[in-house]
Structure formats: structure tokens, C-alpha cells
Amino acid sequence: MTILCVRFQLPPTGEAALPGLLELLEEFTPVVEALPPDGALADLRGAERYFGRDAVELASVIRVRALALYGVDCVIGAGPGRMLARMAMRDARPGVTRAVSEESAVDFLAEKPVAALPGVGTATARTLCEYGLDTLGRVAAAPLSTLQRLVGARVGRELHEKANGVDRGRVVPNAVSRSLAAERPFTRDELDPDRHRRALLSAADELGARLRALDKVCGALTLTVRYADRSSTTRTRTLKEPTAHSAALTRTAYEMYETLGLQRARVRATTLRAEALGPAEQASHQLTFDPADDKLRRIEEVADRARAKFGPHAVMPGALAA
């Protein structure tokens, strides 16, 4: 077990602590992959040899330091690869690391629903369930040729390997600075979808302004919705073209929100994160010849000049979409 998946139990407005928590992990290993808004993967193969402790023992040290330095508890899963570590983390609880060894991986996966496997979307899970392959144990026992006929050659092969505990994923070091986040906590658990949408509008407007100020564009947008029971849902969508246009970010945020199907959900906070940042001068823009879109872009330019002169609060959040 050499890979840790750590989820920090940040307060609703505590995402700013994530860079410091990532630095804490980097004291043990340079191979750390941020999983915004509140998680990370860490490859401890070198650390196990250097410190003379296994991954579970090192996880205990990490937990104590996170509590002592940041007042943040964490949930930790350990496994031989990133997939198993992430799935183990879902079964973990604060104070106890959930560890899955290479030998126990098949038994660990067997009773889990097929949708629990990372990378298995709703459509793939529905197709498999229609043929009785509703658990990973049944998927593992199914002939490879059958899976490939149902979901395609490449997906079928990957699914067969993962269900049998073959975890080829690696931790890819990255930097949390390659993304920007805008969080909108509610003063109380909020059930009103209109208020959820207004929060998304405000967050998308902020992200657009910050991206334009940095001369950056983003290639993907991630929405995280936190609920009253401390659980959360995260959705990521790749944009049709890299952009810093607030209206485009807002449309994408609304689309992701609608896919969640929230009706009477008690929402504690929403977070929008702009991912895959790149230089604005290298991005292409598809001309739409839409007068309304052109008008919004001109208004954005005026609003950005006002923010630069009078400060970030010179323009009311969401005013560009009004």
C-alpha cells in the first residue's frame, strides 16, 4: 500500500488552507497530486523506505500534523494504486485509515456497485446493470469479450482490469495554482434553487474577472456542492473552447447544476473552480456574430477597467448578466 488518498475535512470557507495542507504532504513526498477542492493523492513509495514506516503509519503522522497545524481532520484511504486508494478513502472515517492491499483488492471490490468504480458513468452503469452486471464482482467474473461487446473494446478492457483489482493509475504531481476557485457559502442550509443559481452566477462572474485580470483562460470548470450532512457532489466539464468569458462560465455552471437534479437538497456551500489554465493570447475564440454576446464582452471590458481602477467590488457580482 503505497498511495494515500487524503480528503481534508475543511470548513465551508476553508479552501484557502488547501495549499498549506499540500505542502504538509510534500514534506513526506514530492509526488503529490492536488484533488481540489479538499483532497490530494500522495505516492509514498520513497517515503516508506526513507522513514522506515509503511503508508498507514505515515498516514497517522499526516493526520496528527494536519490537526495540530491547521485544526483540520482528514479521511485517508491507502492502496497499491490511485484507484484503490480513492475507493478506500470513501470507506474510511476520521481517525482510522482504510487500507486495501493488492492481495485483498478483489474481495474489497466484489460487493461494490459497478457505479462505484471511478470512470464508470451513468450510461455505462445502466448498460451493465441491464445485463445483470450490477456489482464489480460480477463484472470481474464476466468474460472480457462480453464486456467489450457491451461497452466497447477499450472501455471493456479497462473495466475488466479494474474490477479484477488491476490498478495502473499513477499519481501525477500538479499544482493547485493551476486552478482558481470561487466559493459561495450560505448563512444557513439553503433549499431554494434560485438562491443556488444566484450563488453560481456570482462565482462565475468572479472567476471570469480574475481570469481576465491574469490574462488567463480556463479549459474546464468544476462544480462542487456541499450539503448539510457534510457530503458533497463534484462535477467537471470540459469547455468547448478555453475562455474567461463570464457568460460562458455561467452557462456551463448552470448546466452542471441542472444535471445534479437537486430539488429539496439542503445546500451548505457551492464552489466553482476554473481548471486547465492557459495564456489568453494562445487561446482561439470562435466568432459567433451574436450581437448580444458581443455586447456582453464589451460590458466586461468596461467592468474590468472599473475593477482595476476602483477595486474588485466596483461592479456588483452578477451585474453583467442582469
Task: Describe the protein in words.
By secondary structure, the chain is α+β, with helices and mostly antiparallel strands. 43% of the residues lie in helices and 22% in strands. It contains 12 helices and 9 strands. The chain has helices spanning 18-26, 45-51, 55-70, 82-91, 105-110, 122-130, 136-141, 144-151, 153-163, 193-213, 246-259, 291-310, and strands at 3-8, 32-35, 39-43, 74-79, 98-99, 180-190, 216-227, 232-243, 267-279. It has a 5-stranded mixed β-sheet with strand order 2-3-1-4-5. Strands 6-9-7-8 form a 4-stranded antiparallel β-sheet, covered by helices on one side. A hairpin with a 4-residue loop joins strand 7 (216-227) and strand 8. The chain is globular. The model has no long low-confidence stretch (mean pLDDT 85).
Task: Record the strand order, biggest sheet.
Answer: 2-3-1-4-5
Query: What is the helix fraction of residues, given as a range?
Result: 40-55%
Determine the structural class based on helices, strands and strand pairing. Answer: alpha+beta
What shape does the CA trace take? globular
User: What low-confidence regions span 5 or more consecutive residues with pLDDT below 50?
Assistant: none
The overall pLDDT, averaged over residues, is: 85
In whole angstroms, the N-to-C terminal distance is 53 Å
Order of helices and strands: EHEEHHEHEHHHHHEHEEHEH
* Beta-strand residue percentage: 15-25%
Please tally the helical runs, counting DSSP H or I stretches of 4 or more residues.
12
Provide the gyration radius in Å. 22 Å
Q: State the major sheet.
A: 5 strands, mixed
